[in-house]
Amino acid sequence: EPEVTQTPSHQVTQMGQEVILRCVPISNHLYFYWYRQILGQKVEFLVSFYNNEISEKSEIFDDQFSVERPDGSNFTLKIRSTKLEDSAMYFCASRDSLGSPLHFGNGTRLTVT
Amino acid sequence: GEDVEQSLFLSVREGDSSVINCTYTDSSSTYLYWYKQEPGAGLQLLTYIFSNMDMKQDQRLTVLLNKKDKHLSLRIADTQTGDSAIYFCAEGWNQAGTALIFGKGTTLSVSS
């Protein structure tokens, strides 16, 4: 069964550094999402992406965050200058239509020191 | 704003049925989902129900939806130790945006 893949599984970075989290959505999917989960807390929506542009973003998704679909397969989340509070598990998700469920990747655990 | 509430913990014995409950606030939700998260893993879609349905059964899983009370439940029959995980309820809409609002998750602990 096709799946969403995320790399790396764990990323450690120093405060102030830039990080790029990578995702390969399921190949025929058109809608892409990033969510994050701070340890022990809710899974929170960050951003949705469709037709090469952001559809919606949450308050968390400030100017430090950006997303890109640089080619036909990858979907990336960039954090420009990481803060300690960015430490979380970041999940990528995709779906093929508005009526279908989201399929999530296994997540990237980001640790900012 | 929209919110999804779940009880945080549930402990059952192997072979018993588990019932995980969820309440949501947005009556315009189109879909309601149950996801499972095992330790260190991602979110695995278990099942989902359209808002015009009352019940959906899928092998050991039964989802009940009470739209009037905005209450969703997941029943796992013959619970196994492998069912131990965090179960997230989520609501969604047929739109390109946020798609899903998650609850905090219910940790299910199954003892043998």
Low-confidence runs of chain B: none
DSSP E strands of chain B, number: 11
Largest sheet of chain B: 6 strands, mixed
> DSSP helix count of chain A?
0
**How far do the termini of chain B sit from each other?**
41 Å
Number of helices of chain B: 0
Structural class of chain B: mainly beta
* Average pLDDT level of chain A: 93
Proportion in β-strands of chain A: over 45%
Elements of chain B, N to C (H/E): EEEEEEEEEEE
Instruction: Name the largest protein-protein interface in this structure.
Output: A-B, 26 and 24 residues
Low-confidence parts of chain A: none
- How much of the sequence of chain B is in beta strands? over 45%
Helix content of chain B: under 10%
H/E series of chain A: EEEEEEEEEEE
State the shape of chain A: globular
Q: Radius of gyration of chain B from the CA trace?
A: 13 Å
Average pLDDT metric of chain B: 89
Q: Count every beta strand of chain A, where a strand is a DSSP E run of 2 or more residues.
A: 11
Question: Would you give an account of this structure?
Answer:
- The complex is a heterodimer of chains A (113) and B (112).
- Chain A is mainly beta and 113 residues long.
- Chain A is 0% helix and 50% strand.
- Chain A contains no helices and eleven strands.
- In chain A, 35% of the residues are buried.
- Chain B is an all-beta fold.
- Chain B has no helices and eleven strands.
- In chain B, strands 2, 4, 5, 9, 10 and 11 form a six-stranded mixed beta sheet that branches. In chain B, strands 1-3-8-7-6 form a five-stranded antiparallel beta sheet, with no helix packed on it.
What is the strand and helix layout of this fold?
The complex is a heterodimer of chains A (113) and B (112).
Chain A: E1 5-7, E2 10-13, E3 19-24, E4 31-37, E5 43-50, E6 53-57, E7 65-68, E8 75-79, E9 88-95, E10 103-104, E11 108-112
Parallel strand pairs in A: 2-11
Antiparallel strand pairs in A: 1-3, 3-8, 4-5, 4-9, 5-6, 7-8, 9-10, 9-11
Chain B: E1 4-6, E2 9-13, E3 18-24, E4 31-37, E5 43-50, E6 55-58, E7 61-66, E8 71-76, E9 85-92, E10 101-102, E11 106-111
